[in-house]
Amino acid sequence: MTPLQQEAVLLEAHRWLNTPYVRQAAVLGAGVDCIMLLACVYYAAGIVPWIDPRPYPSDWMLHRSEERYLAGLEQHAEAVDGGPQPADIVTFRFGRTYSHAAIVIAWPTIVHAYEPARCVTLDSANSAALGPRIGPVYRVTAGGVA
Fold first, then answer.
1. pTM of the prediction?
2. d(CA 20, CA 128)
3. Which of 16, 62, 79, 143 is the most buried (most CB within 10 A)?
4. What architecture is domain 3-144?
C-alpha cells in the first residue's frame, strides 16, 4: 500500500468514529460492526472492491474452531511480520478463534467497531481488554489481492 493509500484508509477510518456498533450494519453514522467497518473503510479508500461477507452468525466463534475471520481476511490481505504499520489490520481472539479486527492508526492506536464501547472508537491494542488477545497482523494490498 502506498503512503497515499495509507492516508486514505486512516482518514476514512476516522470518519467512522462514534458510529454506533450494530451487528451486520454498514452505514456511516448509523451502525457498523468490526468486519463491516473494514469492508467499508478499505472500499471507500479505493483499496478493494466492495466486499460483503453477510450474513454471518454473531456467535460462531464461541462454538467452532474454524478460523473463518482469518480465512476471509486472507482473501484480501496477507499476514505481515514485524511491527504493525498505519492502515494494517490487527486481529484479536475472542472465544475459540480470531473473531475481531481493527485498523492500525499508529501502533498501538487502533480504530475498531467494538461492542463493549457500543461504537467505533479509538483504542489501544495494548489495553487490558485487547492486549492479551492480539493475533496476526494483515496488510491489504491494492485491489485486495494478497
1. 0.92
2. 22
3. 16
4. Alpha-Beta Complex (3.90)
